[in-house]
Q: What sequence folds into this?
């Protein structure tokens, strides 16, 4: 895995070097956002559905322990082996243990952001297990030794030429080929062979139903099902917040999920697993990894309602113009920025600042998470806790001093305007972060206050 | 303390004050014609819907549509002489050769074109995914309006079941839609009138 050492602002600067590329990235994601709009507007009950989903998830947060225990009991009755993991390393050890127990050294995997969060692939590969990602986008980034840049569209940062070159090198496709149909067919053949020869399959979980002890996995490609139904052992990994109380609640969530994600009325496959097939072993790993801590943070617990649709990323002006990798976290974008500080405040202190607080994320969220409010609140927590760089802290303190003293504010504004007029090079240089990718505006002749006072007099 | 106890204890300590489930979790959809909505929704995902009056007509259609195809499988007794691939195998990997499978499914959903298929009607869960081409047969009068109606039918599910809406697809390369990612390359839905 490539390690990102730059903070969000630093990594975005690199991302923004190629302007046509950034524009393309921006427009591609906005296109997905418009598909979501069109699709959601076809349901007159859309807003009521969001409210309903949000309330069901709130019920889940407030009954989490009971629901998990009911789910565990029902799942066991269904013949599923249930495991619990406090953190990433525990989860990874459980997976490795199961594979070793069955003498399996090759596994096929469908999309699971949780295993990205736990850095499972690196761990298993280090322990001699060959892990193949089977979602096309995930396979692409895996071959590039990169993490996914988006939770729903893992390779959204790549152009077809990049993928053509990659497949030429790894799958032997023709040099220079860029036709998506041709490249997808090559991946189909390559991965079909993996599906047919792997004895273990790992999938994620979109929803786990307490009442029935079953779980639902949604894909468009059919890769989760191809893996699970051919393997001797199926391992499903879930963060504990994936639980929902009743099967009928799936009606609400499946109507919201794909429409919010890509504008489809539903994903091609919504697979409901309840019992292992005859002769198969089914394991389910329930993972905490900081979630129980987040549950205790009153201001931030709503982030656990997330159903991972990615709508907040597609709509975010900062995500669209900085790319998923700039967030140096398994989940990028606005939702990633409120989840990540819970995992490591020092390492992820930059992320809640990677936002304009415009609120678009909260407006599209299908479970009505107050994402932009949480971004704002994380900033307070992180500055108070001393997790932001000194430079930023001094800047914030200076700003607060200026803004809290009207006379000083007026004087410094006047000074700033005359300096900008007389010596524009003082602000128009690379030391000023506002000057990056844009020219500074012409300073106005007078401030609004001056104008107002003058007009009152006249 | 085990991970399980640790997690549950921490949750109990940290969870918010109890709230109730929302009063409204089900909504009605109204279409002038449910079958037309179903057919249009599936057309948008490259799936043809064909009405057949009887098993006889279905059989005729099957021969017509898949005349040159070998390795044809089915779960429908009336199509026994059409199929040339026995599903009476024990290892699902052997299904890999199948070119087309015509399978009995349970019902359809108009709002999203999803069709429910489950262990009830399937000898192998891998079958609808591993076959190169797929066709479902559902009773013509079994199309519900939306997912809330669907889960009223699915009060409880069998060991495994799946909503399938269209052929397998991906847009992972520059958002260009490609049909036939890992699962079936095509889907046809037959609506059967005969009880």
A:
């Amino acid at each position: 895995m490539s390690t990102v050492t730059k903070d969000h602002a630093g990594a975005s600067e690199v991302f923004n070097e190629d302007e046509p590329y950034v524009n393309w990235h921006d427009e591609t994601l906005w296109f997905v956002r418009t598909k979501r709009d069109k699709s959601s507007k076809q349901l007159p009950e859309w807003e009521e559905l969001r409210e309903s989903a949000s309330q069901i998830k709130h019920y889940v947060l407030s009954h989490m322990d009971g629901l998990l225990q009911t789910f565990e009991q029902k799942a066991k009755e269904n013949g599923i082996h249930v495991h619990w993991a406090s953190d990433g390393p525990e989860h990874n050890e459980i997976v490795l243990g199961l594979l070793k127990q069955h003498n399996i050294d090759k596994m096929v995997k469908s999309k699971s952001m949780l295993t990205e969060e736990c850095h499972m692939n690196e761990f298993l590969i280090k322990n001699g297990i060959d892990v193949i990602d089977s979602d096309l986008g995930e396979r692409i980034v895996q071959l590039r030794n990169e993490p996914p840049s988006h939770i729903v569209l893992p390779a959204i940062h790549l152009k077809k030429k990049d993928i053509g070159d990659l497949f030429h090198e790894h799958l032997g496709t023709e040099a220079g080929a860029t036709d998506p149909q041709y490249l997808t067919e090559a991946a189909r053949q390559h991965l079909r062979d993996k599906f047919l020869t792997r004895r273990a399959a790992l999938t994620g979980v979109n929803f786990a139903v307490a009442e029935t002890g079953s779980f639902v996995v949604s894909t468009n490609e059919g890769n989760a099902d191809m893996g699970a139904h051919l393997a001797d052992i199926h391992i499903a990994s879930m963060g504990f917040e994936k639980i929902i109380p009743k099967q009928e609640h799936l009606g609400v969530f499946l109507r919201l999920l794909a429409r919010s994600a890509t504008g489809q009325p539903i994903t091609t496959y919504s697979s409901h697993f309840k019992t292992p097939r005859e002769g198969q072993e089914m394991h389910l790993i329930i993972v905490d990894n900081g979630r129980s801590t987040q549950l205790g943070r009153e201001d931030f617990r709503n982030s656990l309602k997330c159903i991972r649709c990615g709508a907040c990323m597609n709509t975010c002006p900062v995500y669209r113009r900085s790319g998923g990798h700039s967030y140096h976290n398994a989940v990028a974008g606005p939702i990633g920025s409120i989840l990540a500080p819970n995992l490591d405040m020092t390492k992820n202190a930059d992320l809640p600042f990677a936002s304009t607080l415009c609120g678009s994320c909260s407006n599209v969220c299908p479970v009505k998470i107050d994402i932009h409010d949480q971004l704002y609140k994380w900033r307070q927590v992180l500055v108070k806790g001393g997790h932001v760089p000194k430079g930023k802290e001094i800047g914030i303190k200076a700003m607060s001093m200026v803004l809290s003293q009207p006379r000083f504010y007026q004087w410094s504004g006047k000074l700033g305007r005359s300096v900008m007029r007389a010596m524009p090079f003082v602000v128009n240089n690379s030391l000023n972060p506002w000057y990056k990718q844009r020219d500074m505006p012409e300073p106005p002749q007078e401030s609004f206050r001056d104008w107002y006072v003058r007009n009152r007099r006249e | 303390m085990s991970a399980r106890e640790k997690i549950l204890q921490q949750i109990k300590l940290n969870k918010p004050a109890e709230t109730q489930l929302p009063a409204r979790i089900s909504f009605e959809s109204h279409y002038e014609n449910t079958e037309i909505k179903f057919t249009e929704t599936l057309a948008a995902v490259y799936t043809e819907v064909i009405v057949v009056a009887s098993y006889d007509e279905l059989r005729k259609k099957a021969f017509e549509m898949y005349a040159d195809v070998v390795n044809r499988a089915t779960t429908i007794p009336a199509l026994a002489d059409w199929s040339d691939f026995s599903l009476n195998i024990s290892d699902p990997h052997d299904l890999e050769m199948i070119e087309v499978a015509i399978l009995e499914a349970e019902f359809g959903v108009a709002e999203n074109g999803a069709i429910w298929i489950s262990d009830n009607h399937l000898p192998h869960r891998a079958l609808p995914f591993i076959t190169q081409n797929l066709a479902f047969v559902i009773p013509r009068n079994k199309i519900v309006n939306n997912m809330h109606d669907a889960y009223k039918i699915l009060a409880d599910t069998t060991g495994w079941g799946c909503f399938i809406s269209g052929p397998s697809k991906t847009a992972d390369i520059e958002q260009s839609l490609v049909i036939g990612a890992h699962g079936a390359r095509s889907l046809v839905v037959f609506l059967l009138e005969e009880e």
User: Anything to note?
Assistant: Chain B touches chain A through 74 residues (CB under 8 Å). Chain B has one domain: 31-192.
